Automatic annotation (TrEMBL):
This is Protein SRG1. Residues 208-309 form the Fe2OG dioxygenase domain. Belongs to the iron/ascorbate-dependent oxidoreductase family. GO terms for molecular function: metal ion binding; oxidoreductase activity. The keyword Metal-binding applies. Keywords: Iron, Metal-binding, Oxidoreductase. It comes from Durio zibethinus (Durian). Pfam families: 2OG-FeII_Oxy (PF03171), DIOX_N (PF14226). PANTHER family: OXOGLUTARATE/IRON-DEPENDENT DIOXYGENASE.
Length: 364
């Protein structure tokens, strides 16, 4: 069993971007200013929002076979060609989405001293602060984060569950149960799209690990110099993203070597394939690099749920998806070990997945 690790990595004082914003600095602190190659070219990308696929979950739950098969094929295309899709008619009460958004925003609007009662210790991914920071000279994201382990109970740190807002805990519990149902549903249809039994992932995963991270991106006077969140793929099986309905467009995905912005659709949730599904499908469905950018005048709130197998599970490419045309690309490994590897490395595109890759032998 491999619980979420904690390492005493000293990174010094980390500035809080909300407090920075209040101070109205005349320049962006150097710690946030990206190297030229990393800076977002906002004018080029924001002019052409990407048309990522839309999946209507209600069509997958109907008895009409034509409609069902058509939506399964749409899901297959989304997973193969994009690694991202937006899901409509997901079955989660829209009032629930509004409530979790409100409590998340209310938490971030608390005084700094209140939020600092729940600090994210260096080298961990739970609490308030910035994750994936391991050195004094590492560039910081223009973002405040609050992350919590939710399921199974042993990954929770009760001291980090806030007492304010008063309805935070109850709201997060209810929301997380609904998201868990959605993830199980989506994995069932993803399995079918691969020609596998619908329950294959649920049977394989054991008691699935679920964590939530709330991200708050204040406006930034120079959005062309900073990143809201560094480029990365997710270590999960599935990730569910809820974007605040009044937020700026912030999510960008790497599509055909171009950063493409994702335009939020009202009442939809954004789903992306994580590294775990890439390994299990032997690269048929790939996790995709994504990042967040900031806006000069508008803030942005996002609520992200990560859904992954139990830490005790051994993973590797599924036999049904390995053949002569698609030989085995990844080794077998313990998922807890990969989780530990993921959270103890800074976000660097898809580099963390090198952990699982089998080096191809070049014939001479």
């Amino acid at each position: 069993m491999a619980p979420v690790p904690s390492f005493p990595i000293e990174v010094g004082h980390i500035d809080d971007v909300q407090e920075l914003r209040k101070a109205k600095p005349t320049t962006i602190p150097e710690r946030f200013v990206r190297d030229m190659a990393e800076r977002p070219k906002l004018a080029a990308t924001l002019s052409s929002p990407s048309d990522i696929p839309i999946i209507d979950l209600s069509k997958l739950m109907k008895t009409d076979q034509d409609e069902y098969q058509s939506e399964i094929m749409q899901l297959k295309t989304a997973c193969e060609e994009w690694g991202f899709f937006q899901v409509l008619n997901h079955g989660i009460d829209l009032r629930m989405l509004e409530t979790i958004e409100k409590v998340a925003k209310d938490f971030f609007m608390l005084p700094l001293e209140e939020k600092q009662k729940y600090p994210m210790a260096p080298g961990t991914v739970q609490g308030y602060g910035q994750a994936f920071v391991f050195s004094e000279n590492q560039k910081l994201d223009w973002c405040n984060m609050f992350a919590l382990g939710v399921e199974p109970p042993f990954i929770r740190n009760p001291k980090l569950w806030p007492s304010k807002p008063a309805d935070f805990r109850e709201t997060l519990e209810t929301y997380s149960k609904e998201i868990r149902k959605l993830c199980k549903n989506l994995l069932k249809y993803i399995a079918v799209s691969l020609g596998l039994k619908g329950d294959v992932f649920e049977e394989m995963f054991g008691v699935a690990v679920q964590a939530v991270r709330m991200n708050y991106y204040p406006p930034c006077s120079r959005p062309d110099l900073v990143l809201g969140l560094s480029p990365h793929s997710d270590g999960s099986a599935l990730t569910v993203l809820q974007q605040g309905k009044d937020s700026s467009v912030g999510l960008q995905i790497l599509k055909d070597q171009t950063w493409a912005p994702v335009q939020p659709i009202p009442n939809a949730l954004v789903i992306n394939i994580g590294d775990t599904i890439e390994v299990l499908t032997n690269g048929k469905y790939k996790s995709v690099e994504h990042r967040a950018v900031t806006h000069k005048e508008k803030d942005r709130l996002s609520i992200v749920t990560f859904y992954a197998p139990s830490y005790e599970i051994e993973l590797g490419p599924m036999a049904e998806l390995v053949d002569e045309k698609n030989p085995c690309r990844y080794r077998r490994y313990n998922h807890g070990e990969y989780s530990k590897h993921y959270v103890t490395n800074k976000l660097q595109g898809k580099r963390t997945l090198e952990f699982a890759k089998i080096e191809s032998k070049i014939s001479t």
